[in-house]
Amino acid sequence: MVISPLWFQGVILTFVIGFAVLGYLALRVYQDHAPIPEKVVSEAGQTVFTGEDILVGQQVFLTYGLMEYGSIYGHGAYLGPDFTADYLHRQALEMQQFYGGGAGAQERVQRELQANRYDPKADTLTWTEGQVRAFEVLRRHYEDEILNRKRSGAGMGPGAIPEPEEIRRITAFIAWTAWTASARRPGRPYSYTNNWPPEPLVGNQLTEEAVVWSTLSILALLGGIGLMLTAFGRYSHLLGWHAEEERRLRFLPAGEVPLTPAQRSTAWYFFAVAALFLVQTLLGGATAHYHAETGSFFGVDLPQWLPYNLTRTWHLQLAIFFVSAAYLAAGIFLAPLIAGYEPRGQRLLSFLLLGAVVVVVVGSMAGEAASYKGWLPHDAKPLVGAQGWEYLDLGVVWQALLVAGLVLWCAILYRGLRGKLAGESPGNLPYLFFYSALSIPLFYAVGLVNRPHTNFAIADFWRFWVVHLWVEDFLELFTTIMVAYVFVLLGVVSEKTATRVIYFDALLYSVGGVVGTMHHLYFSGTPAIHMALGAFFSAAEVIPLTFLTVEAWTFLHMGARQEVRGSETRFPHRWAVLFLASVGFWNFLGAGVFGFLINLPVVSYYEIGTQLTANHAHAAMMGVYGMLAISLLVFCLRYLLRPEDWSERLVGFSFWALNLGLAWMVFANLFPIGVLQLGDAVAKGYWHARSLEFYNDHAMIEWLRLPGDVLFIAGVVPLVYLTGRAVLRPSRPAAPTAAPEAPVASPLFTEVAPAPAAQ
Fold first, then answer.
1. Closest CA to 276 of 352, 332, 347, 329
2. Can you tell me the distance from the alpha carbon of 267 to that of 340, in angstroms, rounded to the nearest whole number?
3. pLDDT value at position 471?
4. Sequence-ordered strand ranges (E) for 234-355
5. In which band, very low, low, confident or very high, does the pLDDT at 753 lie, cut at 50, 70 and 90?
């Protein structure tokens, strides 16, 4: 190893401990999740609905895309009600009215809703007369107002779910989630959802655990940052980015860098990345507009053809697809630079993978539309239509094909790196690159565990292995490794420095990020220990982001320093490095500051599923992974384009338009409306903060987002143009496609001997 093997051993030990804890928490979820009774009966013994109705209702709810319109347990879309909170509030009001109103009725309602009348031996849940009455009233309400409305409104088209039996089963599922949110967990003074949502009518308020672990989270954050800064100050000569100060480099002009056939094929990938990105931003603009004008799109009845749940689904899925495609392309592009050669057949495999990506993208989007529109048979929806879990909306077939495509990508990388790996220690940079690539299909495949009829608490546990572990941890590590390798290939940092930075980042990420996954699961039916550990360890996730911020200035100027010393050629990747610098900025602000704000249980209790969540999601997902995808695109495009086709002005416009547009979205719309929503949830109730009435009262702030959206979309257009030029005008000298007798040096720079000292 180029550095001490203790680094490698430390990272392995940290991951083993972290995943051992996750294994224990998985066991607790399976043991202590909220039960689904075989049947729900009235006090007279009549069946209200069955456990099968609940599970089928959940599947219908998901496959019609209702998790992308409204939410359950706070998880899902931001427009539309949170169905759990909405049902619970309306149920309490209806029961109070049924019992005659007044203080006595309110006390009775609280008593009835908090009482847990589930009999585990008979597997039966008994409801009071008031609960049964409320169920029938609310079934008609959801049918008339949301699921089978007569005309477009609130972002949804008319007749979204026309079958009364499906609506009854959906209502049964929603009613069950509301029961878990009010009925006290056996032996505990709080509900299965840790007393979420905050609802005075049923006596739900913050639990002791939420307050205690929020306090300890702050202590963990402050203490962890202090320890990290102390270590960095004491061992700054070992930690962080350090340029190769003693070297003078000549960067090879982009037009003189030979490209292999597989590298050339990535031009098509990056064109697909830019095209998907453009469509994704247009869908995002339409989705956001429904918050300002809920019944139409500038007077056009767009919800009839593209309802909110479909535009939001495509918007989220395309974000994952364009970022993933950029990573695939960058991996294929970097492999020959790392190995010094390319084996025959890589180009064919690369295009085969690209074709698979196209099939998955087109097939999954068409399947989601067909599922939401009711064009597919019930049993076919989760397979080729939509499973409906947020971020895992695509059907099982498309999900499995995507995993297979990622495995093929790993095989392509292994073929390209095999010769290099043979002469390296398993703890060195080439292996780290390959390990991180293997983690991408591995942790995305975890999503295959879910099914639309899986108990919600269990399904959410595994879903967030994908949303958090795949996206926020292992893609983050892959990002760090790729960026470090790029700077090694450019000669700016040594392999020893890059390897040490990667291990240090991996340690910091894994300490908080693995167990910190549980911060998503405070209120969806998991035991309180998930909130305790999730809150405490997720606070530590801010620590590596602080470290990256401390090192950002050094990182940003490494290329510039080389440019000053190496006068023969200019540093060719100014804009790629600036995009990477913006990744650092958004990582700290979006993932760190905004993420920590909403991860505290005392805040999340009132905030989950509001625009503060969207604020964190946009700043982190687009600001980090989106900007990184564009940085990789710009880096590779510098070599894929002819010198006469490259445009500093167009790339510079994209950089400023994307970053300023995102900043406008965040600071002019998402953050202020989220703060107002948080206040409304405390003052009037969470159900009201998620209501259409709230958005109508603050429509002006929603309209303020429009300039930022327009600027952001404009920033994507030059990328489409430039990647299109790379596809249409390829012209590069060939690189070796057979393994040389000995590894060759990186073709991106040559070392210039220092000038002799003056006599």
1. 329
2. 20
3. 77
4. 248-251
5. low
Judge contact between 601 and 559, C-beta under 8 A. Answer: no
Buried b vs exposed e over 520-547: b needs ≥16 C-beta within 10 Å? bbbbbbbbbebbbbbbbbbbbbbbbbbb
**For the CA atoms of the chain, what is the radius of gyration?**
27
- 39-42/124-127 β-pairing: parallel
Token pair for residue 273? 């990345």
Whether the Cβ atoms of residue 388 and residue 63 lie closer than 8 Å to each other: yes
Q: Cα-flanking dihedrals φ and ψ of residue 75, to 5°?
A: -100, 125
Q: Residue 75's beta-bridge partner residues?
A: 72
Q: How many CA atoms lie within 13 A of 13 on its CB side?
A: 6
pLDDT of the residue at 497: 84
d(CA 331, CA 438): 12
* Nearest one of 93, 118, 96, 120 to 107, comparing CA atoms: 96
Q: Give kind and range of the element (H or E) at residue 49.
A: strand 47-50
Identify residue 397 by its one-letter amino acid code. V
Tokens of 551: 């090192």
pLDDT at 735 over 70: no
Cα separation of 698 and 700, whole Å?
A: 5
Beta strand ranges found along 477-625 (DSSP E): none
Q: What backbone phi and psi angles, to 5 degrees, belong to 363?
A: -65, -45
Conformational region of residue 196, where left means phi above 0, alpha means psi within -120 to 50, and beta covers everything else: beta
Cα angle 723, 624, 635 (rounded to 5 degrees) comes to 35
Burial 86-101, CB ≥16 within 10 A → b, else e: bbbbbbbebbbebbee
pLDDT in tens, 542-598: 777 666 666 656 665 665 555 444 444 567 788 888 898 888 889 889 888 899 899
The 10 Å Cβ neighbour count of residue 156 is: 27
For the segment 660-665, the average pLDDT, to the nearest whole number, is 97
* Mean pLDDT value across the chain: 89
Cα→Cα distances 499→235, 416, 421, 429, 440, Å = 16, 21, 15, 6, 20
Q: How many CB atoms lie within 10 A of CB 563?
A: 17
CA distance 99 to 37: 26
Q: State the burial class of residue 165 (Cβ atoms within 10 Å of its Cβ: 0-12, 13-18, 19+).
A: exposed
Q: Considering only 31-40, 81-90, 369-378, 540-549, which range has the smallest mean pLDDT?
A: 540-549
Q: Quick one: CA dihedral 709, 715, 718, 719, positive or negative?
A: negative
Mean pLDDT of 55-59: 96
Q: Which of 181-185, 215-219, 335-339, 340-344 has the highest average model confidence (pLDDT)?
A: 181-185
pLDDT of res. 476: 77
Do 706 and 640 form a contact (C-beta atoms < 8 A)? no
Here the tokens at position 549 are 């911020």
Please state, in angstroms and rounded to a whole number, the distance separating the CA atoms of residues 623 and 616: 10
- The 10 Å CB-count burial string (b at 16+, else e) for 319-340 is bbbbbbbbbbbbbbbbbbbbbb
pLDDT band for 715, please (50, 70, 90 cuts): very high
Give CA angle at 476 (474, 480), nearest 5°. Answer: 115
Residue type, 617: A
Model pTM? 0.92
Other beta carbons within 10 angstroms of residue 735's beta carbon come to: 20
pLDDT digits (tens, 9 = 90+) for 736-750: 555 544 344 456 766
Going by C-alpha positions, the residue among 552, 551, 565, 558 that lies closest to residue 238 is: 551
Determine the average pLDDT of the residues in 592-620. Answer: 93
Confidence at residue 149, expressed as pLDDT on a 0 to 100 scale:
82
What does the pLDDT read at residue 479?
80
Backbone angles phi, psi at 401, to 5 degrees: -65, -35
